[in-house]
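ok so i was messing around last nite and threw this chain in just to see what happens. nothing serious, just curious
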Amino acid sequence: MMKSLTPMTLAALMALPLPLLAQDSSGAVATEESQPAADANASQPPKADDVLDLGQPVDQGPQLGQRYSKEQHGDWDLACVKTEGDTDPCSLLQIMTDEAGSPMAEFSLFRIDQEGSQAVAGATVIVPLETLLPAALTIAIDGAPAKRYNYSFCNPMGCVAQIGLTQGDIDAMKKGNVAKLSLRPAPAPDQVITMDLSLSGFTAGFNVVDVVQQ
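result:
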């Protein structure tokens, strides 16, 4: 049972930072000034941070409209957006980085349920703003011939390609190891920037990602 602080207990706590009195074996009390210099250094009062509990932030979970990782599958996140509803919409997400490990682009995928549609999944790919748009985005899986996708629009977050994936594309991704995404920067159109999209955990993630009704 937690005891309440009495005035004496509170006074004792308030006195903690003060120099402590030392008592020798004879019972005589000696002040700090009468102790050797080494003993005085060894009996420095504790710092306030060592005595007082500074507290820890309370994790309140994702806030409304915030994207969060619900679960991980290999190199993929099942990324969901917090809503007021009982079920948050989720997509299969991977952030791609440059050679220095800095975020470069993101690939976000969802399944599609539409009778007669060739696309069984859709993906949103966001690349840097200074991307040469006419050069388009190319994706090649495990060295197979690449596919070319046009960009849809640009906003302050980057330039966006909204692509459709056929059953053949998804099968290749499930069997593959890595997909290569390539783009050309507008300031240096003769250069090609290639990023790796890991396919580790893709099958497990694809099986649980949301199905969007078209």
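not much to say yet. The chain has two domains: 9-51, 67-213.
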